[in-house]
User: Which sequence fits this backbone?
């Protein structure tokens, strides 16, 4: 067991919340809207350093000056997250790890998490953005350098897009010289992201069909296709395409080419799973990917990830519930549910 207890104060709807984890698998029961997901969000923030769904201002309970999360671990360590007014009058977040305060959770204190949300079960039919976010979150759990590169890419992309909005096509020559450095950085970070995504999807595909069959007990084949925007290019070719499409970007007011437009497609027996796979088959595909995620995290970090399951048992039949229990038996599992499972 990794987590021993959690305390919340002014965290979303919770004025006060205190929970002790006495077993490897814990169930937090409550009605819809009672704040069950918020508890998982708080755990995720302590383990990963940020929320999986909101900014700190959104998390802060209405009419409160601060929020506080305290998690005690089985090894005796304690991490506190505090968000509130600072000496400057602005609200800021601090992490207290031992006797040290930091603005961000140190990498050495981050712990891997497998997060399973109800929306994940609809991933196959979701938008390209939702699919990118799903895989980016998994990759960030496995590889801290991926998360850092992705953050740099997104920051650079925002700066380039902000610049594009300030000018028109008539300012092409001026803008061309200004965005040169942004294009170089986007090409550099973009290719690093693309290579890591391709490697990860290849690793997942090596295991996906076998893991899927262990759940569904049939001979179907599953494959995830990483779809590039355009053809495979080098870093230099990536840069040149950004340069060549600048005039078009100026007209549109945003950057049209890049890894932020790459996508994913799920194939089921060689066809698009969105339409060819049944609801149950889609659920088995998502379960298989979650199991593989946990395997890869353990192989690459030597840590058994904490598994957070947000009200997903109600969405799964008995066969898939048993698969969840079987595959996560070595992990600490924290489940939210509207009613206690039998």
Assistant:
């Amino acid at each position: 067991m990794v987590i021993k207890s959690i305390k919340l104060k002014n965290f979303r709807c919770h004025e006060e919340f205190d929970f002790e984890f006495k077993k490897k698998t814990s169930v937090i029961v409550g009605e819809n809207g009672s704040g069950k997901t918020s508890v998982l969000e708080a755990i995720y923030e302590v383990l990963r350093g940020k929320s999986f769904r909101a900014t700190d201002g959104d998390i802060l309970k209405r009419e409160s000056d601060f929020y506080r999360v305290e998690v005690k671990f089985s090894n005796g360590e304690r991490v506190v997250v505090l968000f509130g007014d600072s000496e400057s009058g602005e609200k800021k977040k601090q992490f207290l790890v031992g006797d040290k305060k930091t603005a961000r959770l140190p990498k050495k204190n981050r712990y891997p998490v497998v997060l399973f949300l109800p929306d994940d079960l609809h991933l196959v039919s979701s938008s390209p953005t939702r699919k990118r976010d799903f895989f980016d979150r998994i990759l960030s759990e496995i590889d801290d350098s991926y998360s850092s590169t992705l953050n740099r890419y997104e920051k650079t992309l925002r700066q380039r897009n902000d610049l594009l909005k300030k000018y028109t096509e008539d300012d092409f020559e001026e803008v061309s010289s200004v965005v040169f450095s942004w294009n170089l950085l986007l090409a550099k970070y973009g290719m690093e992201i693309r290579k890591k995504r391709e490697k990860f999807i290849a690793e997942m595909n090596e295991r996906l069909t076998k893991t899927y069959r262990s759940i569904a007990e049939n001979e179907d084949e599953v494959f995830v296709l990483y779809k590039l925007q355009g053809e495979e290019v080098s870093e230099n070719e990536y840069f040149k395409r950004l340069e060549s499409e600048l005039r078009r970007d100026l007209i549109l007011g945003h950057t049209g080419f890049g890894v932020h437009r790459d996508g994913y497609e799920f194939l089921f027996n060689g066809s698009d799973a969105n339409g060819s796979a049944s609801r149950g088959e889609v659920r088995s595909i998502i379960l298989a990917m979650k199991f593989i995620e946990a395997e890869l995290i353990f192989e690459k970090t030597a840590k058994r990830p904490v598994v957070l399951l947000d009200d997903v048992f109600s969405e799964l039949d008995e066969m898939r519930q048993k698969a969840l229990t079987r595959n996560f038996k070595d992990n600490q599992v924290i489940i939210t549910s509207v009613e206690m499972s039998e």
Notes: The first helix runs from residue 36 to 48. The two ends are 22 Å apart (CA to CA).
